[in-house]
Amino acid sequence: MHSQVLRFTALLFAVALMGMSFDILAHGVDDKTRVFLEQNTGVQFIPFIYIGAKHMFTGYDHILFLVGVIFFLYRSRDVLLYISMFTIGHSITLLWGVLGDIQVNPYLIDAIIGFSVIYKGFDNLGGFKRLLGKQPSTKLAVLIFGLFHGFGLATKLQEFELDSDGLVANMIAFNIGVELGQFMALAFIVIAINFWRKSPSFQRFAITTNTMLMSAGLMLVGLQLTGYYLS
Amino acid sequence: MTPPIVSTKTLLKSTIVATIIALIVLVVFILPAEYNIDPTHIGHRLGLTALAHHDDEAESKADIIVNAKQGQQVIEVTVPAGKGIEYKFQMAQYEKMTYEWITDGEPLYFDLHGEPQGDTTGYFESYAIATLSAMKGSFTSPFAGSHGWYWKNNSDKPVAIQLIVEGQYEVIGLK
């Protein structure tokens, strides 16, 4: 079970490594934010918190994955546990990616993030149990995909061509913002799902919802891979 | 509440439906709107391809409006004996540059100046004129246009200059 997850991770890392390049591809940053950041150097704590929170709150790829993760978690303790795994994962690679100046192609990393949505939708349908006879560790999967989501966040921050002046403080502010944005988004999702779970339609639509998650993930992968081939 | 384990048939059906929906939405809506790729021509009829065009324009406009802050750049030029050269940078209004230049020892007459964009009258504004072998400073461009140095070598030997610049600009180079 674990070896399959690990083999799979190795494959994803290989894909990401192939895409590593030294030119930063412009993509996903709005111009106003870019102009602000390029003209203001030094520590910009609150602005970076805001950018991080906005990116997470409006980042449908991260949100879709989280919806998939907490879809069948009804105990608050489990929600906290899984979200902590995700947070640990993406914080590690966000800090590592920016501080180590690791250039991962943003299209490929976003394609992997899209893939994480497909994976979770398929997993929620019990697809792995059906296909492999066993379900790969869900906690490990959240942690590993968290690592990839963190690289995605790092590429967003690297697009700003940040000044080394105040980089660490700004990056930590961005990370805090990411957690705030995630917390806000989750608050809505958890309330909505818990409310919905009480209704009998939840079980009926569980298959439809997770099919749609897979479909949305496929769209994200298609969108990002097309971007990659065109760039 | 445990996740359902669906039958193989349902799983297959879900996967196929997910793929078909994703393909249709991608080809008909997303690719035309994001990348102007429109094999079905439906995106064009829906006006979605205009979004992709708009994005391209916005991006190139943004490039003109603001130059990214450049890291330190070292430029080496040589002024031939008895000749003058000009080395310029394209800058938008209020963009900043810090600079430092040093010759191989010989002082040179120089004029640090800017020419407004699109000007055909030959007008220019000088920011500093002197004869020195080194200078350090910074300036903010008062108007959009080409800004930089004219160095004149009055000696009978070529003089090498090392110019170090940092800030918001696009290199035009020797003129």
Overview of the molecule:
The complex is a heterodimer of chains A (231) and B (175). Helices cover 79% and strands 0% of the residues of chain A. Chain A is built from ten helices and no strands. Chain A is globular, with a radius of gyration of 18 Å. Chain B has two domains: 8-65, no CATH class; 69-174, Jelly Rolls (Sandwich). In chain B, α1 (8-35) packs across α3. The termini of chain B are far apart. The chains are: A mainly alpha (231), B alpha+beta (175). The A-B interface holds A 26, 31, 34-35, 38-39, 41, 72, 74, 118, 121-127, 129-131, 161, 163, 197, 203, 206-207, 210-212, 214-219, 222-223, 226-227, 230 and B 1-8, 10-11, 14-15, 17-19, 21-23, 25-26, 30-31, 34-35, 37, 58-59, 62, 65-66, 68-69, 168.
What is the CATH third-level topology name of the largest domain in chain B?
A: Jelly Rolls
Query: How much is the radius of gyration of chain A in Å?
Result: 18 Å
Q: What portion of residues of chain A is helical?
A: over 70%
Measured between the Cα atoms of the first and last residue of chain A, the distance is 37 Å
At a glance:
Chain A is built from 10 helices and no strands. With about 230 residues, chain A is mostly helical.
Give the SSE layout.
The complex is a heterodimer of chains A (231) and B (175).
Chain A: H1 2-18, H2 31-39, H3 45-58, H4 60-70, H5 76-99, H6 106-124, H7 127-132, H8 138-158, H9 167-197, H10 201-230
Helix pairs in contact in A: 3-9, 4-6, 4-9, 4-10, 5-8, 5-9, 6-8, 6-10
Chain B: H1 8-35, H2 42-45, H3 49-65, E1 69-79, E2 84-91, E3 96-103, E4 108-116, E5 125-132, E6 134-140, E7 145-152, E8 159-168, E9 170-174
Helix pairs in contact in B: 1-3
Looking at this protein, list some descriptive labels:
A: 231 residues; mainly alpha; B: alpha+beta; Jelly Rolls; 4-stranded antiparallel beta sheet; 9 strands
